[in-house]
Design brief:
Layout lengths: L3 E3 L10 H4 L2 H11 L6 H8 L3 H14 L2 E3 L23 H9 L1 H13 L7 H13 L4 H13 L5 H13 L5 H25 L8 H13 L4 H15 L4 H13 L5 H28 L11 H14 L1
Antiparallel strand pairs: 1-2
Helix pairs in contact: 2-3, 2-4, 3-4, 5-7, 6-7, 6-8, 7-9, 8-10, 10-11, 10-12, 12-13
């Protein structure tokens, strides 16, 4: 249990620390002002931050002289530096041992060991996993869901799990439900990109942000199947001789605007467009044949004009 209170009197050294402090650190300060006699974890909960960030903020305000420990405080934790947002604080070996004995965390550690294909985890690996639960308040289900996802892609290591979990939680993806939705969306994007690469036969080139946006539009917004997108690609190559995302987008957008949902409907619309274009060309050619030739003002027969003028003079 750690007790803190706002330090009495003015400290000129603290004049700039308030403007430079983060929102999390300011929330911790407010929580501390109302948190006399409660634990650091309660302060973290009241401020809506992780325990690591709460302890880091407390260390800042102690160093700045804004707060001080009460005389009855029994525990004093010092931090040489403030923790960065995506950093775990060092967990003492004694706490690691206690975590292993904790029923809920011991099951989490065992499941992670199975996913990592190890008989047991090292102390450092246990620190990574326990830190996510204790310091970032991530549930065992959350950690195991992310671990299983990484394992399926052969990317699972304890440090990778730690870094990905911290990065996601910092983006507000901190519940199992949010994580599952996020991973599902990412899987769908990955599947769409794979299908697109298979259609156009490009496996190494990275798609630009604009190309990725068009791919999402074709697969997700238009809900077009790979066969329809493949048809648009064939037309694009036939007409331009090369891959053009912009040209494909015009084709697919025109089909979508026309309400085409199947390959047959897209082909039928294309046939109608071809027929109308051909009929228009035929009509233009027909009109040009039936019309009399236009006079050519550039031609002038001098002999003919002279003969006609001579004939008129005889008549006169």
């Amino acid at each position: 249990m750690s007790n803190y209170k706002i330090k009495e009197g003015k400290n000129p050294a603290t004049a700039s620390c308030f403007s430079e402090a983060s929102k999390e650190e300011l929330r911790v300060l407010v929580a501390v002002s109302f948190a006399k006699g409660i634990s650091d974890s309660d302060i973290a909960a009241a401020a809506g931050v992780s325990q690591a960030r709460a302890k880091s903020a407390i260390a800042l305000w102690l160093a700045e002289g804004v707060i001080e420990e009460c005389a009855e405080a029994t525990v004093k934790e010092e931090f040489a530096d403030r923790l960065r947002p995506c950093e775990l604080m060092e967990t003492p070996a004694k706490e690691v041992a206690e975590s292993i004995r904790d029923e809920g965390l011991s099951e989490l550690i065992e499941e992670c060991a199975v996913l990592l294909k190890k008989p047991a985890l090292t102390t450092e690996e246990v620190k990574c996993i326990v830190g996510l639960a204790d310091q970032y308040s991530l549930t065992p289900d959350y950690i195991l869901t992310l671990a299983a996802h990484l394992a399926a892609k052969n990317h699972l290591t304890a440090p990778t799990l730690r870094d990905r979990a911290i990065a996601l939680s910092s983006k507000g993806i901190s519940t199992t439900e949010d994580l599952e939705i996020y991973l599902k969306d990412k899987e769908q994007e990955s599947s769409n990109e794979y299908e697109m690469r298979r259609i156009i036969g490009v496996w190494k080139r990275t798609f630009s942000a604009g190309e990725q946006a068009m791919i999402r539009k074709w697969f997700d917004t238009f809900a077009y199947s790979p066969v329809i997108i493949s048809e648009a690609y064939d037309i694009c190559v036939m007409n331009t001789g090369d891959l053009s995302f912009a040209y494909m987008d015009k084709i697919l957008s025109s089909w979508h605007e026309a309400g085409c949902k199947t390959l047959e409907e897209c082909k039928a619309l294309r046939s109608i467009s071809k027929s109308e274009t051909k009929s228009s060309d035929t009509a233009k050619r027909g009109r040009s044949k039936s019309e009399p030739p236009k006079p050519r003002y550039g031609d002038f027969d001098v002999d003919d004009a002279f003969a006609k003028a001579l004939a008129r003079s005889y008549e006169d």
